[in-house]
């Protein structure tokens, strides 16, 4: 499980864990939880363009974060940032075979939503079992500012985890 940058990390750790599942025993992983995963790309999306003047977290901030985080000399179409580049089919095949479930949450007021939706579509095309929770409006890290939304998220996470048994 991870939120924001932690959601991106959880995604990549999940792909690695699927490769090493036998080495992780007795640990049994049943799925991944990606809450507003911090994905990006070199090309600006519609949601990023709508958020140009957003207070607190405009696209220039996320692009700077990627510039400071990625290996020197690469752009944000690097696999760490943009899951749409490269080949995930083999990784997804392992997740599918393991019957893991994936929960992806976000909100349409978040500049990252278009990237999140693209990744969900890619997972669905690979026939992974994906559960989504995309709220209208809102912003990145909404649950930190609105406790009622945090409670709703906790309920959705509880339902997802209990349905994985």
Automatic annotation (TrEMBL):
<protein>
    <submittedName>
        <fullName>Alpha/beta hydrolase-3</fullName>
    </submittedName>
</protein>
<dbReference type="GO" id="GO:0016787">
    <property type="term" value="F:hydrolase activity"/>
</dbReference>
<dbReference type="Pfam" id="PF07859">
    <property type="entry name" value="Abhydrolase_3"/>
</dbReference>
<feature type="domain" description="Alpha/beta hydrolase fold-3">
    <location>
        <begin position="1"/>
        <end position="142"/>
    </location>
</feature>
<dbReference type="InterPro" id="IPR013094">
    <property type="entry name" value="AB_hydrolase_3"/>
</dbReference>
<dbReference type="InterPro" id="IPR050466">
    <property type="entry name" value="Carboxylest/Gibb_receptor"/>
</dbReference>
<dbReference type="InterPro" id="IPR029058">
    <property type="entry name" value="AB_hydrolase_fold"/>
</dbReference>
<keyword id="KW-0378">Hydrolase</keyword>
<comment type="similarity">
    <text>Belongs to the 'GDXG' lipolytic enzyme family.</text>
</comment>
